[in-house]
Design goal:
Layout: H1 19-26, E1 30-34, E2 37-40, H2 42-61, E3 65-66, E4 72-74, H3 75-81, H4 83-86, E5 92-95, E6 101-104, H5 109-116, E7 128-137, E8 152-162, H6 165-185, E9 190-194, E10 205-211, E11 217-221, E12 227-229, E13 248-251, H7 258-265, E14 273-279, E15 285-291, H8 298-304, E16 309-310, H9 313-318, E17 336-340, E18 348-352, E19 358-364, E20 373-375, E21 394-408, H10 410-414, E22 418-420, E23 426-428, E24 430-437, H11 438-448, E25 450-451, E26 454-455, E27 466-470, H12 476-491, E28 496-498, H13 505-515, E29 519-523, H14 525-529, E30 532-537, E31 543-547, H15 548-565, H16 572-577
Helix pairs in contact: 1-11, 2-6, 2-11
Bound molecules: adenosine-5'-triphosphate and magnesium ion (MG).
């Protein structure tokens, strides 16, 4: 420790809102250079390298080949794919001294497609899967949470090329399997969820989520195994009917929100119908209706109504619509009514009357109004029905640590990347891409494995396995015993740190807990007089005195078990304490 550069901090950095951001800085593992830009200090870099190696092993084991592409990418490639314009301000753009446009790669579909086109020529060479572990740049609108959402970060990105959909599916399944294994080896509690493909493109995609309350993603999951990002998941809401004898227009003065309306009528929000107005690609008015207790999913709306955009308040006024009291009866001429499929089963709606201060109860579908089209429009929420088994879904928050995509021929077609098939005919490659956020994974591990005083590294990614703490470095016997123990353990193959600093015991303990060494061996004068040392397990806080004569034997046994179990989640410490 006297030679390691580990500048621990006593206080929390002011801007750190979540555990990983706070603890990684306090434990002297990372330092902020600029907003969303971080340096990895020696211990942080050791952990990062361990995660990289886990990822590398799982990629290599599945036949993927490691390469290294440049971060600096010529703009022409991005013009070819159309993403120079589509990607928006997140793309870090720059111009060289000759006035050539470049970007700092946020992802590498364009570069890899240009790399293989013209050289990967025959169906006989397929499939091919190439990957790299490299720095990525995204000018995030809101960099935050330290390594979780940064502007410069480490990603493992893999790209595969195929001649058939079956071949793509095979690699996609192998990569998905690798991603689950990587999460397991990093000690993460995770779920694979149905997702939306966003910027990257393609249709089939799965996200791997580390469960954490600090996660930005909302998920729903079911005991049957189904799980989805709420951005993407199918929604089966169950609205309820507020049954009345006939259509009735009621005065609802000052009532504009669903909550106010439900309270006014003493009915649940699920018995009301929410209306949202928008325009389609031709500027035509479309009014959407969804159950009152749900939110509109704009991605789904866009899929159901090409070009869909919510109206601004001024646009609503121009159409003669009343915000807070819109309904399907007496809509402006030509307006299209699109409703969430769940409302099909609701014969009478509680809904706005298209008149300020009025709503309808008992508005009858088919009699008082008609719906032009039905679609899945809502953000799925906990308690909705599981689309696979019908049980009530549960909710959780997650950190997206990785994602796999089936791209199809989006990039190969746009960029003219073709191979010759069996009949000597040019065909565009079928592609897949697969990304692991390596630095984000590091932060996710800390989110799941920490407490008030510090980090509790899982053994497989800990900066070292054991820290030996001599409490009085000036005592020759204490120091010698500590040094012997450290070198014995190192000889057995453990990664060992010796805290040889001339510091108070309190300082050493606090640092050891903060940094989170999985095992501490404490050598103090008092216990040494009885030929004992204290052993502390960070994961559980368990501690106990162990006879010096048996500790070497225990370590040797533990090490054997560790090697046996290096791919499992079991730690050496269970062994040490059993
Ligand atoms: P997000 O939705 O969180 O912005 P994304 O879906 O845009 O991420 P991908 O394009 O799927 O990200 O990139 C692959 C992986 O790279 C992600 O699963 C994530 O782990 C990581 N990643 C993406 N953006 C960032 C970022 N700003 N900081 C750290 N890691 C990131
Ligand atoms: Mg993603």
């Amino acid at each position: 420790m006297s030679k390691l550069y580990v500048p621990t901090l006593r206080d929390d950095p002011a801007d750190a809102e979540i555990a990983s951001h706070r603890l990684l800085q306090r434990a002297g593992m990372i330092r902020k250079t600029a907003s969303g830009v971080y340096t990895f200090l020696p211990l942080g870099y050791r952990v990062l390298s361990k995660i990289e190696n886990i990822v590398r092993e799982e990629m290599n084991a599945r036949g993927a080949l490691e390469i290294m592409m440049p971060a600096l990418q010529p703009s022409e490639l991005w013009h070819e794919s159309g993403r120079w314009d589509d990607y928006g301000p997140e793309l870090m753009r720059l111009v060289d001294r000759h006035d050539h446009g470049f970007c700092l790669g946020p992802t590498h579909e364009e570069l890899i497609t240009s790399l293989i086109r013209g050289e990967l020529r025959s169906y006989k060479q397929l499939p091919v899967c190439l990957y790299q572990i490299q720095v990525k740049f995204r000018d995030e609108i809101r960099p935050r949470f330290g390594l979780l959402r940064s502007r410069e970060f480490i990603m493992k990105d893999a790209y595969s090329f195929h001649d058939t959909q079956e071949s793509l599916q095979e690699t996609y399944d192998a990569m998905s399997d690798a991603y689950g294994t990587i999460c397991n080896r990093c000690g993460l509690e995770w779920r694979a969820v149905e997702a939306d493909s966003g910027q990257i493109g393609g249709k089939v995609t799965t996200e791997f989520m580390a469960l954490a309350d600090s996660g930005e993603a909302e998920l729903v999951y079911c005991d049957c195994g189904y799980a989805a990002n709420t951005e993407a998941g199918a929604c089966i809401a169950h609205p309820s009917v507020h049954a009345v004898d006939r259509l009735e227009k009621i005065e609802t003065p000052g009532i504009h929100t669903i909550e106010e309306l439900a309270e006014f009528l003493s009915i649940p929000t699920s018995s009301t119908v929410k209306a949202l107005s928008g325009k389609d690609e031709d500027g035509g008015l479309t009014v959407l209706f969804i159950p009152g207790d749900h939110e509109l999913n704009e991605i789904k709306a866009l899929r159901a109504i090409p070009g869909f955009e919510l109206l601004t308040d001024e646009e609503m006024l121009a159409f003669g619509l009343h915000k807070g009291s819109m309904g399907p009866i007496d809509l402006p001429e030509g307006a299209r009514v699109v409703a969430d499929v769940s409302l099909k089963a609701i014969p009478q709606w509680v809904v706005g009357a298209n008149e300020e201060g009025y709503h309808y109860v008992g508005a009858a579908q088919g009699t008082d109004f008609t719906v032009d089209a039905w679609a899945d429009l809502c953000v799925v929420a906990p308690a909705d029905a599981c689309p696979e088994c019908g049980c009530a879904l549960k909710g959780a928050r997650g950190i997206e640590v990785s994602q796999v995509f089936q791209l199809g021929d989006k990039y190969s077609k746009a960029m003219g990347a073709t191979y010759l098939d069996k009949n000597g005919k040019e065909q565009p490659f079928i592609m897949g891409c697969y990304g692991v956020g390596v630095s984000r994974t590091l932060a996710a591990i800390v989110e799941q494995h920490s407490d008030d005083v510090g980090i509790r590294w899982p053994l497989a990614v800990a900066p070292a396995h054991i820290c030996v703490l001599p409490l009085d470095v000036k005592d020759e016997n204490v120091m010698k015993t500590a040094e012997n123990l450290a070198s014995e353990a190192a000889k057995l193959g453990f990664e060992v740190v010796l805290d040889d600093r001339d510091e108070r015991a309190g300082v050493k303990f606090a640092d050891a807990e903060l940094i989170g060494w999985p095992l501490q061996i404490i050598v103090g004068k008092r216990s040494l007089a009885e030929n004992k040392v204290e052993v502390r397990r960070r994961l559980t806080g368990e501690s106990g005195e162990i006879d010096l004569d048996v500790i070497a034997e225990l370590l040797s046994f533990a090490n054997k078990r560790m090697n046996d179990m290096s791919r499992g989640g079991v730690t050496i410490f269970e062994t040490l304490f059993s």
